[in-house]
Amino acid sequence: MKDFIAFFGEFIVVIAVGGMFYAMAPDGAQKKYIHFAISLCVLAAIMGPMISVVSSLPEMLEEVEMEVEEHQVEIEENLTEAVISASRENMEASIIALLSQKYDIATEKLAVSVALDEKDPENIEIVSIDVRAEGISSAKREEMRRYLAEQFLGNLSITVSD
């Protein structure tokens, strides 16, 4: 806004000075040339800011492009985090439902925590499963641990605790 006000201030000064020169010019052939020179000065005063804006346009476009790229990366990271979080929650709910149905245990007595290896977002792996089963005998907990190890092919750490 300051640039806009400064532009109009300079423009008014150029027109005022040009008007004074035109008024003081003697009549005759010289007045045409003075009018031409004043017109060129006014045109230069108008074109100066436009030229500076046009010359800085590539830099402005580059800044906008960089901001868009940063925003895009941020969105992708947030999306990846949301997908991982939703996957973890779905896995935990599925394991609770599986154990509840298989061993006839109320879902309120089970709590599952799944740890994921998130280094490669395209190949997320389960690292460990921690199951808390309230009021369940140790023999049944061991049976649950073996069942989960069998289901997940024994490639991860599985703990079932009270």
Describe what this molecule looks like in 3D.
The chain has 162 residues and is α+β, with helices and mostly antiparallel strands. Helix content is 69%, strand content 14%. It has three helices and three strands, in the order ααββαβ. Strands 1-2-3 form a three-stranded mixed β-sheet, with helices on one face. A hairpin with a 7-residue loop joins strand 1 and strand 2.
Task: Report low-confidence residues grouped into runs of 5 or more.
Answer: none
The count of helical stretches stands at 3
The strand line-up of the biggest sheet is 1-2-3
**Sheet having the most strands:** 3 strands, mixed
Structural class: alpha+beta
Helix content estimate: 55-70%
Please give the alpha-carbon distance between the first and last residues.
68 Å
Key words describing this protein structure:
single chain, 3 strands, 3-stranded mixed beta sheet, 3 helices, alpha+beta, 162 residues, rod-shaped
